Amino acid sequence: MARKVFYSFHFNEDNWRAGQVRNIGAFEGDKPVNGNKWEEVKEKSDEVIKAWIDKNLVDKSCLVVLIGENTSSRKWVKYEINKAWELKKGVCGIYINKLSDSSGKQSKKGSNPLASYIPIFESDFSTSSYVYDDIKNNIESLVENAIKIRSQYK
């Protein structure tokens, strides 16, 4: 079954890294979020932002939180996690701090915004290209595991 996922991340800091994960192409409809669309939506009211998130989550199998240095402090990431759980979606996380940004820089490891029973992937590699390959080789099983775990909770 082709899975659809919603990626949650700190847009300003991690959009480049998130784009790398989306370019893996492991899931149906994987394509980077149009920056202009998010910029347009985020300038509106909280209700408009929530409606946009809700609409984009509804047909997804899983929420994948791409964890960068400051992801855990983001208001909308927290909302997306809670909303996905409420909608009975799988939820998982991937540390992306060791992927290079557009300047070739990695970032510090951030705090995990997810509960202890949520599956998290963190590569043992330190070189960005190896981290990318490690994520690529593990992302599908991570999502399947998250969906399986979520089905155990009512």
UniProtKB/TrEMBL annotation:
InterPro entries: ThsB__TIR-like_domain, ThsB_TIR-like_sf. Pfam families: ThsB_TIR (PF08937). SUPFAM superfamilies: Hypothetical protein MTH538. It comes from the Bacteria. Residues 6-100 form the Thoeris protein ThsB TIR-like domain. This is MTH538 TIR-like domain. It comes from Cellulophaga baltica.
